[in-house]
Amino acid sequence: MTNVSLRGLSKSFGHFSVVKAFDLEIAAGEFVVFVGPSGCGKTTTLRMIAGLELPTGGEIFIGSRDVTDLDPRDRRIAMVFQSYALYPHMTIRENLGFALKLAGVPKEEIARKVEAVADTLGLQQYLQAKPRTLSGGQRQRVALGRAIIREPDVFLFDEPLSNLDAKLRSVMRNEIIRLHKSLKSTMIYVTHDQVEAMTMGDRIVVMHGGVAQQIGTPLEVYDEPANLFVATFIGSPSMNILEGEVENGKFQCQGISIDSPVPVSGKAFLGIRPEHLRIVPHDTPGAIRGTLGVVEHLGAETIIELLTDGPVITARIPRADGLSGGAELYVAANHIHLFDKDGNRIETP
Ligand code: ADP
Ligand code: MG
């Protein structure tokens, strides 16, 4: 188990700055997820940790070693990509053992380790097969196996499940979590998928525009998003954001009036997660009036769209049969978030 430390890590391509002064302490054995939209700098950060990309500024420590200028081979890391990058002409056994063979590990030891890894990942019956005869999920298991067999200090994953269908993705997600629990290795996992981030990470780093917007446990980030970007990126459907003014203890926005939990005044943004809204009687304090737009039945839950005089509000409510479009109804929030005029969180009691 090894800790990883990123200190003022930055990267520019020409004048284009894609990772900006990134500071992060990853504890030994921790599972950290970098999550953010495409282009926010996740892969570049991971590639710098791997040594495949040289930083423009800052330092990378793995354990007590400053690896900033070290060759990738000397960093004791293993990386798993979205494309499995298996050698097509080799059997699974040869694919798994290849790195050890290159490193001059004795044959018997390679054979023993290949068996052990194949056992862990349920690949025993495929050892003699070629990659093309395997399914996507099995190939990704082999790619995982090739990382595990090297017994790296740190595992790096770059969107490893993006090529798999939804069902297999959730199976592999659990498999990687189990693997982390049994190996107890430090793992850094990159994804654009907030569900993967929320379910897999001990901590998550929400990235946007090359900047770490927030670092915290999944629930910290969900409960107390640092700014509007994090608030709308984490959670599904996205948090409703109302732009308005706080005056005399009330947040006002185009006919909507909700008690402000903090005594601020002036321009502000109010955030309400769809799952924190309920249909209520019209005389409920803070009720938002609207007419029903699109209704989506998910089975156990129903997602409704409420057309107010101002913004469209999305609510995720327990299953509601028999709702018809155009009906007038009221919703109220049991939990709200407040952001200042710059979109930064205002702490609420
Ligand atoms: P992510 O993995 O979050 O989608 P990347 O780290 O791949 O983002 O890319 C971040 C930004 O850096 C993108 O705008 C991308 O186009 C740019 N970029 C990545 N690699 C290079 C490169 N080798 N040369 C120039 N620009 C690059
Ligand atoms: Mg990427």
Automatic annotation (TrEMBL):
Mind telling me which CDD domains this protein's record contains? ABC_MalK_N (cd03301)
Cross-referenced InterPro entries: AAA+_ATPase (IPR003593), ABC_transporter-like_ATP-bd (IPR003439), ABC_transporter-like_CS (IPR017871), ABC_transpr_MalK-like (IPR015855), ABC_transpr_MalK/UgpC-like (IPR047641), Mo/tungstate-bd_C_term_dom (IPR008995), NA-bd_OB-fold (IPR012340), OB_MalK-like (IPR040582)
| Gene3D superfamilies cross-referenced by the UniProt entry | 2.40.50.100, Nucleic acid-binding proteins, P-loop containing nucleotide triphosphate hydrolases
- Entry keyword set: ATP-binding, Nucleotide-binding, Transport
Which SUPFAM superfamilies does this entry report, sorted A to Z? MOP-like, P-loop containing nucleoside triphosphate hydrolases
Instruction: Give every ABC transporter domain span.
Output: 4-234
Gene Ontology MF annotations: ATP binding
Where do the coiled-coil regions begin and end?
none
The family assignment reads: Belongs to the ABC transporter superfamily.
Q: Which NCBIfam families match?
A: PRK11650.1
Supply the name of the protein.
ABC transporter ATP-binding protein
The record lists the organism as Albidovulum sediminis
